[in-house]
Design goal:
With about 200 residues, the protein is mostly helical. It has two domains: about 70 residues, no CATH class; about 80 residues. Bound molecules: zinc ion. The site of zinc ion has 9 residues, from α3.
Length: about 200
């Protein structure tokens, strides 16, 4: 069920997966019981990680019962709250796990073509370029601040017409804001890359 049988040996067996899942759940549960915060909300391995393809909401873990038998299923949060807003049906926990294990195995088999290049990309090129650009932006931001001070000092000494001063000042402020925004975006993507690695 978890692998294409007779093709190759399982890299992650169903048993291993369940064992790891149990440890993760237990740890998260311990944390969750101490503090009722966001961690508590994410106490299962798939909590907050399954996204509904119809509406984009996250899925919620629930216990369903069919006659006397109970089973675990994942359901779109929007569907649970208002069935008319999302028609996504629930998915059984075992099917989610099977799909997950199959995908991980595929990724492991294809690591040379998918994971390695992705990792290298995240580690090297993008980051180096981003670091250099951030440094460059920081220098420009400092220069921008200096120019603002210079402009104000020229104005207070009476060397500038107010109209000229305002025009120059506004241009510098706009430039400063643009530089800050670019720096913020790059820092954000850099942090994102590092946490993905
Ligand atoms: Zn949905």
């Amino acid at each position: 069920m978890y692998l294409v049988e007779n093709h190759h040996e399982a890299i992650i067996s169903h048993k291993d997966f369940n064992a790891v899942d149990a440890v993760i759940n237990q740890r998260a549960k311990e944390k969750g019981i101490e503090k009722r915060n966001n961690k508590y909300q994410n106490r299962y391995s798939f909590s907050g990680k399954i996204i509904c393809s119809e509406c984009g909401s996250t899925f919620k873990r629930r216990i369903h019962s069919a006659s006397t038998k109970k089973y675990i299923a994942w359901c779109c949060n929007k569907h649970i709250k208002k069935i008319t807003e999302c028609s996504m049906q629930f998915i059984r926990d075992e099917n989610i796990k099977a799909a997950f294990v199959m995908m991980i195995n595929k990724l492991i088999f294809g690591q040379k073509f998918i994971l390695r290049p992705l990792l290298e990309g995240l580690r090297n090129q993008n980051n180096t370029e981003n670091f250099l650009r951030i440094e460059e932006l920081e220098t420009k931001i400092e220069k921008n601040i200096e120019q603002c001070h210079m402009l104000t000092s020229l104005m207070t000494k009476g060397y500038l017409e107010p109209a000229v001063f305002n025009k120059e000042k506004n241009a510098l402020i706009a430039e400063g804001a643009r530089l800050q925004t670019e720096k913020k975006q790059l820092t954000y993507s850099l942090n994102g890359n590092l946490s993905k690695v």
